[in-house]
Design goal:
The chain is α+β, with helices and mostly antiparallel strands. The chain has 16 helices and 19 strands.
Length: 454
């Protein structure tokens, strides 16, 4: 195998082989996933670059790991030993914003928030907004089928991807999907590739659905509760009432305390849970009033409704600070289970029970409106650097309980490395075999992101 051969093909300025420089490309935000040492890192600038790299990798049977900004939380962007890492962060052109068809065409390295900024000129927005929206790339969002705070109304990434340009393992460049509102010709390869975590191909650009921006600023409702159960009951009542919030987030006491200790924002210490909700439609006032009523009936000890944009931004910043606040307290295992929304109270109680039984600190936030819960396990590593067994035991109980409630191991972070051991529990062996067959059709040599996802 000669990396110099690849350098001659794509240009040496796009290839990094210095181990010290490559070190920053070895891992994503899943710090518990142990990275390997890449043979080289390619800074791709075009789909043609990636095509040449994959032809070379196929010829030499070199594993390939593709990465964007490295914000993933499941280890999907972790390097494997001797691999070629392909970074798409130089592919950051917004190729088209089409207001007539309400779509945008962007390269894989474009930052999520920049898409909405470009669309804003036309009164449009790109709806999916993961907490990392200011730093994560659309290619990474597509790889994990990322969600975000607005997904309760507007859906996850898959719901906003119309088509893709993808480089296959052997270097062929294919285009999937369409620019039309409807289209059913052939299998839905676009939806298959979204969420495939780089195991089926390398996404180089995407055609994205844009949404009209709401005509008015959202109305925000915030409520504090003296128990997680009552907050979850309020969520269930909002869903049952068919209100359709544009955002419905839950933050538990441990997370609120961590944010307050860090930012000194004056939160009440006796609050067990906070709900932050928004409504952005023409009926936003009526929806906010209905949510206020449901919060109060579920036992909220404080509820406020605001149309002030600055107040809303401050509240949402508390939610977005949840993960960095937990990181300040120790090592973190950030998890991502989803349950039917009616089962949210049971799921939250199960997380609390696992924390108490195993003496593990768990800080929980949730995209509560769609039942997607993020329990973050905070701990100190053992003397030999490993994760305490109690943490894995508690996590195992949380995952199994989510499945018992009819849920899923991951709502938006992906399987990556960290959740592979539980995947067959959710999918079953027959489904796992189908996944392996699909993988073999796209990547017969198994060089694309080996050891990840499926």
């Amino acid at each position: 195998m000669s990396v110099h051969e690849l350098a001659r093909s794509i240009g040496s300025s796009r290839l990094i082989t210095d181990p010290a420089v490559m070190d920053s490309y070895r891992r994503d935000e899943a710090h518990l996933a142990e990275p390997g040492h890449p043979a080289a890192v390619m800074l791709a600038e075009t789909a043609a670059d990636i095509s040449e790299a994959l032809k070379w990798a196929t010829a030499h049977r070199v594993p390939v790991v593709t990465r964007g900004a490295g914000t993933g939380l499941a280890g999907g962007g972790t390097a494997v030993e001797g691999c070629l890492v392909i970074s798409t962060t130089r592919m950051r052109s917004i190729l088209e914003v089409n207001p007539d068809d309400q779509l945008a065409v962007v390269e894989a390295g474009v930052i999520n928030a920049d898409i909405s900024r470009a669309a804003d000129e036309y009164g449009l927005m790109y709806a999916p907004d993961p907490s990392s929206f200011e730093i994560s790339t659309i290619g990474g969002n597509i790889a994990t089928n990322a969600g975000g705070l607005r997904c309760v109304k507007y859906g996850v990434t898959r719901d906003s991807v119309l088509g893709l340009e993808v480089v296959l393992a052997d270097g062929r460049i294919v285009r999937t999907g369409r620019r039309t509102v409807k289209g059913v010709a052939g299998y839905d390869l676009t939806s298959l590739l979204v969420g495939s975590e780089g195991t089926l191909g390398v996404v180089t650009s995407a055609t994205l659905k844009l949404q009209p921006k709401p005509k008015r600023a959202p109305v925000t409702v915030v409520g504090s509760f003296d128990s997680l159960r009552s907050a979850a009951d309020a969520v269930a009542a909002v869903v049952r009432g068919g209100i359709g919030p544009s955002l419905l987030e839950l933050i538990d006491r441990a997370t609120l305390r961590a944010v307050d200790d860090w930012k000194r924002i004056g939160l009440e210490d006796n609050t067990a849970a906070m709900l932050i909700a928004q409504a952005d439609g023409v009926d936003a006032d009526a929806a906010a009033a209905a949510m206020q009523k449901h919060f109060e009936q579920a036992g909220a000890d404080f509820v406020a409704v605001s149309q002030d944009a600055a107040e809303a931004a401050q509240l949402l910043e508390i939610r977005r600070l949840a993960y960095p606040a937990s990181e300040r307290l120790g090592q973190c295992l950030v998890e991502d289970v989803g349950v039917p929304r009616s089962k949210l109270p049971d799921m939250l109680e199960s997380i609390d029970r696992a924390a108490a039984e195993h003496s593990v600190k768990i800080m929980t936030v949730a995209h509560a409106g769609d039942g997607n819960v993020h329990p973050t396990f905070v701990f100190d590593r053992t003397a030999d650097g490993s994760v305490p067994e109690a943490v894995w035991t508690a996590a195992d109980e949380v995952f199994r309980r989510a499945l018992e409630l009819g849920g899923t191991l991951t709502g938006e972070h992906g399987v990556g490395v960290l959740k592979r051991r539980w995947l067959s529990l959710e999918l079953g062996e027959d489904s796992m075999q189908l996944h392996r067959s699909i993988k073999a059709a796209f990547d017969p040599l198994g060089i694309l992101n080996p050891g990840k996802g499926f």
